[in-house]
Design brief:
The complex is a heterodimer of chains A (about 475) and B (about 290). By secondary structure, chain A is an all-alpha fold. Helix content of chain A is about 80%, strand content about 0%. Chain B has eleven helices and 14 strands. Classes of the chains: A mainly alpha (about 475), B alpha/beta (about 290).
C-alpha cells in the first residue's frame, strides 16, 4: 500500500515546513485562549448591543463570541488557523508531486522498483498525516493552555465563591455548588462568596438568585424534555407541569406552590412591559448612565461596561437615578415627597445595575465552562476541511507536470473558497457566496452552538477521499516527462 | 530473444515531434548507441522504455516485461541516468546516494564506492552547489550502484570533461565485459563509435539506420587523398581507371575510393607519379550517417 522508505524520506525533506507552521499555529491558538477574558468579552457584547448598526454587522456571530469556544471559533478557527493551514497545505501538496515532476527529481523515485501508485499513495499519506498531526499538536497545546490559563478542563469546575464558601460553611464543594440556597441563607457565606468574586454583596445575591432560577429552569426543562431557553421564555410550561414545577422548586429550596406564585409574579411584571416600554426603559437607563458619566468625568461607553463605578459613587448614583427617572411620576401617589421619589428611582436604578452586574458574573462562569468534546469537534472539523482542501491541491499536483499549473488551480481554488466565505460574512447581500465555498461546510458556530455539523463533516470526508483517489489514479496513468 | 524489444512504437507530440514507428532490438550483452540531433526523439524513446510515457501504439519490452504495465518490475533490472540532472532534496551527494540505495533496497554500497573512486567524485559536497560535471558523476553513480544488468542512459557524458569522458568510456567497457546490456543516447558520434557495438540513428522521430560499429571500423572501401607535385601528374592521374570522389585541380589534389582488394594495383600505378603526399581519410560513423541524411 505505502512505501515506508519513501515516507521516511518525504518526512525528512518536509518536516521543517510542517514544524514551522505547526508551531506558529499552536502559539496563535494558545494566545487566543490566554487572552480570552470572559468579563471583557461580555462587556464588549453589551456595548455592541447598545449600538444597533454594530449589532447588525456582527449578526449571528455575536452570540457565539461570549464563550471561549465561540471566541476560538470566530478567531482562530475562522481566520488565522484556516489561512495558515491553507498555505501549508498548498505548499506541501505542490512539493510532494508536481514540483518533483517539474524539476525532474521524481525520476529517482520512479527508477526504483517501487510502483508509481505506491509512490503517489505514500505522498498522499504524508500530506494527510501531516495535516492530522498539525491539528493534533494544536489540540494538545490548546487543551493544556486552557487548563493552565483558565483551569477549566479537568474535574468539575468550581467558581471562586463556591470554594471560599466551602471553607466558611465547612461543607463539600459539590454540596455547595448543587445547592446555592446554602449560601443565600448564610450571611457569612454571602460575605465570603462576594469577597471571593470581588463584587458587592447585593450584586452577589442577585447573581445567586439569577443562577438559582436558571438552574430551576434547567431542572424543569429536563423533566419536560425541552431546551432550557424555551422554558425561560415561556414560564407557563413549568407552572402547567406539576413534576417540572416540583423539580424546579426543589432547586430553589421552596414549596411548589410558593414557586408557582413567584413564577406568576415574574410573568406578570414581564408581560406588563410592552416592547416599546422596554425600549423606553433602555433609553432612560442610558440617560442615567450618561448623567453618571458626567459626574464621574468618564466616557459613557466605558461606564456602561463598568457599572460598578456608579455604585461606588453616591453622587453619581443620584445623578443617574434622577436623569433616568425610571419610576414614572404618574404612577406615584400624589404628595410623595421629592426625597422619596429620588430614593425610589435610586432603588430601581440600582436594581438594574445589579442585574447587569450579576449577568456579567454569570457570563464569566459560562465563559470558563468549557466543553472538551466541542473543542475536539472543532479540531476534527478543521482537520476535515483541510483534508478536503488538501485533496484539491493534491489532485492538481497529480494532474499537472508543471508547478505553475499545479499551483494555479491547487492554490487558486482553495484561496477562492476562503475569500468567498469571508465575503459571504461581510454583508448579507453577499451571503450567497457561501454556496460557492467549501469552507462553509466547516462552521465553528454550529459546532459550539449546537447546530448540525455531522452531515457537513461527512461531505468533507467523502469529498477528500474522492479527490485523493482521483489524483492517485490520474498520476498512475499519465505521461511523465522524466 | 532480444533483451530489449521495441516494436513499432509511436508517440506523436504533433509537429513531427515524438517517435514514429520505431523498432529496435537489443541483445543481451550488447552496447547500443542511440544517436540523433537535439529534438530527434531520443529522450522520448528512453522515457517509453522506462515506462514514464505510454506509447500511442506499439510497445517496449525489457526482459519480456512490458515497459508500461510492468514498469516497477523492470526497474529491478535497470539502472537509469535521466537526461536532465535534477536531484531530490538532499543535503549532500552522500546523503542522496544513501537514500537512493535505501529506495533500491541496497544493503551493500561497496560497488557505489568503487564507482565514486573511479570517477574521482567527492560526494560529501553540497548537492545543490555541485558543478554540472559533479552532478553528472553523482547521477552516474546512482545509476550504476545497484549493479543492474541493464543500463539505460540519456546522454550520460554531458558535463563531463574530456578526461572524465575517457574514464567513463573505460567504465562502460568494464561493464560490457561483465556482460551488461547498455543502451545510451548521445549526440556525439565519436563517443558511441568508441564504445558501442551497434548504433542507431534517429532523425525526426524515425530510425534512419542501424549500423554495427565493427563494419565502420573494418570498412574495406577506403578513401585516399593524394596531392601531386606537378599539375601534369594530376592531369595524367585523373585519366587512370579509378573512382574519384573529388578532384581539386587548383591544389593538384584528388580523393580516390579504393577497395582493399584493389590496393596492389593502386600502389603500382602510383609509383609512376611524383606524389607530394598521400593520406587515408578515415571512415567514420559520422561520415556514414551524414551520407544518409
Amino acid at each position: 500500500m505505502f512505501s515506508k522508505t519513501i515516507f521516511k524520506q518525504t518526512l525528512r525533506s518536509n518536516w521543517k515546513l510542517w514544524a514551522i507552521f505547526t508551531a506558529i499555529m499552536a502559539v496563535l491558538s494558545a494566545l487566543v485562549i490566554v487572552v480570552y477574558d470572559p468579563k471583557m468579552i461580555q462587556s464588549m457584547m453589551d456595548m455592541v448591543k447598545d449600538m444597533p448598526g454594530m449589532a447588525d454587522m456582527m449578526g449571528d456571530r455575536m452570540d457565539g463570541m461570549t464563550s471561549l469556544l465561540g471566541m476560538l471559533g470566530q478567531s482562530f478557527y475562522g481566520m488565522q488557523g484556516i489561512i495558515l493551514s491553507l498555505i501549508f497545505v498548498i505548499m506541501t501538496a505542490n512539493t510532494l508531486v508536481a514540483s518533483q515532476v517539474d524539476r525532474g527529481s521524481m525520476a529517482y523515485l520512479l527508477s526504483t522498483p517501487i510502483k508509481r501508485t505506491k509512490v503517489v499513495r505514500t505522498q498522499a499519506l504524508y500530506l494527510i498525516s501531516s495535516v492530522f498531526c498539525m491539528f493534533m499538536v494544536i489540540t494538545v497545546v490548546g487543551l493544556s493552555t486552557i487548563q493552565i490559563a483558565h483551569h477549566g478542563l479537568w474535574g468539575t469546575d468550581y467558581t471562586k465563591d463556591v470554594k471560599a464558601v466551602t471553607e466558611v460553611l465547612n461543607l463539600d464543594k459539590d454540596a455547595v455548588a448543587d445547592d446555592l440556597t446554602l449560601i443565600l441563607n448564610n450571611e457569612a457565606a454571602v460575605k465570603a462568596g462576594s469577597e471571593a468574586r470581588g463584587i458587592k454583596e447585593d450584586v452577589y445575591i442577585t447573581y445567586l438568585n439569577q443562577k438559582l432560577s436558571n438552574k430551576a429552569y434547567e431542572a424543569a426543562a429536563e423533566v419536560l424534555g425541552v431546551n432550557a431557553d424555551k422554558v425561560s421564555v415561556d414560564l407557563t410550561l413549568i407552572i402547567k407541569n406539576e413534576e417540572a414545577l416540583k423539580a424546579a422548586a426543589d432547586v430553589m429550596g421552596i414549596e411548589s406552590a410558593v414557586y408557582s406564585a413567584q413564577l406568576s409574579q415574574v410573568m406578570a411584571t414581564e408581560h406588563t412591559l410592552s416592547a416599546e416600554q422596554s425600549r423606553e426603559m433602555q433609553t432612560k437607563f442610558m440617560a442615567g448612565i450618561t448623567a453618571a458619566a458626567v459626574v464621574l468625568d468618564v466616557d459613557p461607553g466605558d461606564l456602561a461596561t463598568n457599572m460598578g463605578k456608579i455604585k461606588a459613587n453616591p453622587t453619581a448614583l443620584t445623578a443617574a437615578a434622577q436623569a433616568a427617572a425610571l419610576v414614572p411620576a404618574e404612577t406615584l401617589p400624589s404628595g410623595t415627597s421629592t426625597e422619596a421619589i429620588v430614593e425610589m428611582n435610586e432603588t430601581a436604578f440600582l436594581k438594574i445595575i445589579n442585574g447587569q452586574l450579576a449577568n456579567d458574573e454569570i457570563a464569566l462562569d459560562k465563559g470558563i465552562a468549557f466543553s472538551v468534546k466541542d473543542y475536539l469537534l472543532l479540531n476534527l472539523g478543521v482537520f476535515l476541511l483541510m483534508f478536503a482542501i488538501a485533496g484539491i491541491s493534491f489532485l492538481f499536483s497529480c494532474v499537472f507536470n508543471l508547478s505553475k499549473n499545479s499551483l494555479a488551480l491547487g492554490a487558486g481554488i482553495p484561496v477562492a473558497f476562503f475569500i468567498f466565505q469571508i465575503m459571504s460574512q461581510v454583508s448579507s447581500s453577499l451571503e450567497n457566496f457561501k454556496y460557492l465555498s467549501l469552507n462553509t461546510l466547516f462552521d465553528p458556530d454550529s459546532i459550539t452552538g449546537g447546530g448540525t455539523f455531522w452531515p457537513q463533516f461527512a461531505i468533507l470526508a467523502a469529498l477528500g477521499v474522492a479527490l485523493y483517489t482521483i489524483g492517485i489514479k490520474v498520476f498512475k496513468e499519465k505521461d511523465l516527462p522524466l | 530473444m532480444p533483451l530489449i524489444e521495441i516494436r513499432n512504437i509511436t508517440k506523436d507530440y504533433g509537429d513531427g515531434r515524438g517517435n514514429f514507428d520505431v523498432s529496435l532490438f537489443i541483445e543481451k550483452g550488447e552496447v547500443f548507441g542511440f544517436v540523433g540531433t537535439n529534438g530527434a526523439g531520443k529522450t522520448t524513446l528512453i522515457r517509453q522504455m522506462m515506462g514514464f510515457l505510454k506509447p500511442d501504439s506499439g510497445s517496449a519490452a525489457i526482459g519480456g516485461l512490458d515497459s508500461w504495465n510492468d514498469s516497477a518490475e523492470i526497474k529491478r533490472m535497470v539502472g537509469y541516468i535521466p537526461g536532465e540532472i535534477a536531484f531530490p532534496d538532499a543535503p549532500t551527494g552522500t546523503e542522496f546516494l544513501r537514500r537512493q540505495a535505501e529506495l533500491l533496497g541496497l544493503a551493500d554500497t561497496s560497488y557505489a564506492e568503487s564507482m565514486i573512486g573511479k570517477l574521482q567524485l567527492d560526494p560529501t559536497a553540497n548537492l545543490k552547489r555541485m558543478s554540472k560535471g559533479m552532478k553528472q558523476k553523482t547521477a552516474i553513480v546512482a545509476a550504476f550502484m545497484a549493479d543492474s544488468e541493464i543500463l539505460i542512459m540519456d546522454e550520460p557524458t554531458t558535463g563531463l570533461d574530456p578526461l572524465m569522458r575517457a574514464e567513463f568510456v573505460d567504465i562502460l567497457n568494464d561493464e560490457k565485459k561483465k556482460g551488461k546490456t547498455i543502451f545510451m543516447s548521445s549526440h556525439m558520434f565519436e563517443e558511441v563509435e568508441d564504445t558501442c557495438d551497434k548504433v542507431a540513428l534517429i532523425k525526426d522521430g524515425k530510425i534512419i539506420a542501424v549500423k554495427a560499429t565493427r563494419e565502420i571500423k573494418h570498412n574495406q572501401d577506403k578513401v585516399y587523398k593524394i596531392e601531386f607535385l606537378f599539375n601534369e601528374d594530376y592531369r595524367r592521374f585523373i585519366a587512370e581507371a579509378f573512382e574519384f570522389s573529388e578532384r581539386r585541380e587548383a591544389q593538384n589534389q584528388v580523393l580516390v575510393n579504393v577497395h582493399d582488394n584493389e590496393i596492389d594495383r593502386f600502389t603500382g600505378v602510383l609509383k609512376r607519379y611524383r606524389v607530394k603526399f598521400i593520406a587515408e581519410i578515415k571512415y567514420s560513423l559520422e561520415k556514414y550517417f551524414k551520407s544518409l541524411y
